[in-house]
Amino acid sequence: MRYFEKMKGHTQSPPRVNKVEIFWSWLGSFLGITVVGLMHFNLLDRSAMIMIIGSFGASAVLVYGAIRSPLAQPRNLIGGHMLSAVIGVAAFQFLGHIPWLAAALAVSIAIAVMHLTKTLHPPGGATALIAVIGGDTVHSLGYLYALIPVGLGAVVMLIIALLVNNLAPNRRYPEFWI
Fold this sequence. Notes:
Elements lengths: L1 H4 L13 H26 L10 H11 L8 H22 L3 H18 L6 H11 L1 H5 L7 H19 L13
Helix pairs in contact: 2-3, 2-8, 3-6, 3-8, 4-5, 4-6, 4-8, 5-6
């Protein structure tokens, strides 16, 4: 019975975010995804490489919309994505012939490693998963996937986060680097 009582929750929903905060979150995410997207479609798409991956959408929520969260800090953004990418590629290379197992191991090992390295960034789980299920374009990159699109894209999003999040007088980013 106590087990199911835990599922009721024990606090109230957080308060609404004010319109100014919403504007800065919108602007940062728009610019961050725009720059990564432009790099993809104008530079790399012609070479059959990718720059934009789905997990960057979730990173945008954190680094532009939840900037005080420990999960949104530079160490977590860069480290979480890059470590997870390497783990995802390794899982595919060792177990790609059993995709459901490779996917499960990639995500779960990525979570464990992010915990161990203090780089927990929830989109990192998706980055590891994309390395397994991303198809031939992703698979052909091998470990380069950790650098382009993952590392470079995360760095671009970090630069935009540093620039935009510090424009507003009552916003400050990051909370910590290391």
